[in-house]
Design brief:
The protein is of the alpha+beta class and 85 residues long. The chain is built from two helices and three strands. It is elongated and about 60 Å long.
Length: 85
């Protein structure tokens, strides 16, 4: 059974993204009750307009990719430091 994705859930997810990349200026644009993920104050569309579930899933994919990239950077830095010592 799937859980209903609410507007509040989508807004919380965008806050997680904003905390990971505050410089990107992520926000939600709403039209006809459907959200779209935007960046730079709405000047750049990140996702297509869709259901709350769709946009929420897009944001969680972005969050996972950002976290993976950060972990990779940390691993690479530790590896380089081991090589230098």
């Amino acid at each position: 059974m799937t859980m209903t994705v609410t507007k509040a859930m989508v807004e919380r997810t965008v806050k997680v993204l904003q905390n990971l990349q505050p410089w990107a200026g992520y926000s939600l644009g709403w039209a006809y009750g459907q959200p779209r993920l935007e960046a730079n104050g709405g000047s750049m569309d990140i996702s297509m307009r869709g259901t709350k579930r769709y946009v929420n899933e897009v944001m969680w994919v972005l969050i996972k990719v950002i976290r993976m990239a950060e972990a990779h950077d940390q691993d690479t830095t530790a590896y380089v430091q081991r090589l230098r010592s």
